[in-house]
């Protein structure tokens, strides 16, 4: 009997060693995606296509703006932003799932200890003798080992799929971090853009007060009518109203920044600062490198890889399973002889199981896996196309806004000259105050446009950084754990 069990175990081991390399299902290769040799949108004036050695945004991208306050706020995103912490926890979950999948490659062993009391009624035994009633104690210490031979690669594919899923989750974490970092930077520039408008309107209000006093003096002297005074008062009130409204926008941006850094709004105060410096030059790599720079693209590609393994798992279900089980231990009716060698027991043997009818369940599962794979491929390709669109949009915004800044500067200079001339004419009595009001309105509008334009250029530069991946690279993904 012992030799028979040994023979069965040896045969099972031999079969396993022969077939361990057999894996059913498709081998994974990254799906093709449409890639152009260069971006359609020309780079802004003074920019150039980055060479491979310097095409990547280096380190902490926000340091390009040379703003210590922005840097201090950005440093808190990865530490305190609750959404980033959520993504980090999900990544840890995915890593644990890989270990769970890997455990199926190895045998599992369980051990138990039992002491049972039983009684039986008096009467005849199965051999015809008399048996008296009474209690019997039974001591048992079994150890059970089981293992399923991964003949068709289903378990290995499960590990690979879990590992790819973990890599996708790591890329999701990087993408979430980059997203909230960029949101903070844009809110930061928008807030200080409001500071610029506040400064402009404060100067404007002071100027309008001087104009109102001038008009009142001329009215008192009988040079102008009360209409001019009313118009000056209305102009001043309008500017004061606009100035007050800006406080609402600034407070909202400040509150948003506080939440992004993981703090309540009451705990964060950002000093006023007016933006003066145009955005820095951002290195732009060739389109093909974008596939390795964007964490969202990497995440979708890893999901495709995981989905590919699910097809193999579904196909492995069509083949028989070969579990190997063994058990052994000690059992006795007396505690004194419980753990002695004569009271040992063991069993060992392989088995083969195959589903012969499941009403099409496995075929449907294989079709489901194939459809899910096709869906992930489509999502991956769409993510790549969206990434190219976002880069093109950001480049277009950079170029157009830079060109517009030249025109707006000319508009500001012309509006200021118009205001100076109309003011001189009004003082000389050769024109009405309505002409001055028109010039004041044009000057304020041009100057606010200039402030807003600089804010938009800085926000657009942040968007370009994000669309290029923010310095991330696919090499940052954790190594596969299969």
Q: For the record, what is the CATH homologous superfamily label?
A: Outer membrane efflux proteins (OEP)
The coarse overall form would be elongated
In total, the number of domains comes to: 1
CATH topology, by name, is Outer membrane efflux proteins (OEP)
What's the CATH architecture name? Answer: Up-down Bundle
Uncertain stretches = none
Proportion of helical residues: 55-70%
What is the CATH class designation?
Mainly Alpha
Total strands: 7
Specify the structural class: alpha+beta
Radius of gyration: 38 Å
Largest sheet: 5 strands, antiparallel
**Run of helices and strands:** HHHHEEEEEHHHHEEHH
Characterize the structure shown.
The chain is 58% helix and 10% strand. By secondary structure, it is an alpha+beta fold. β3 and β4 form a beta hairpin. α5 (154-220) runs antiparallel to α6, α5 packs antiparallel against α10 (433-467) and α8 (295-316) packs antiparallel against α9. It has a single domain (22-107, 150-322, 363-476), classed as Outer membrane efflux proteins (OEP) (Up-down Bundle), CATH 1.20.1600. Strands 1, 2, 5, 6 and 7 form a 5-stranded antiparallel β-sheet that branches. A two-stranded antiparallel ribbon has the order 3-4. The mean pLDDT is 87. It contains 10 helices and 7 strands. It is elongated, with a radius of gyration of 38 Å.
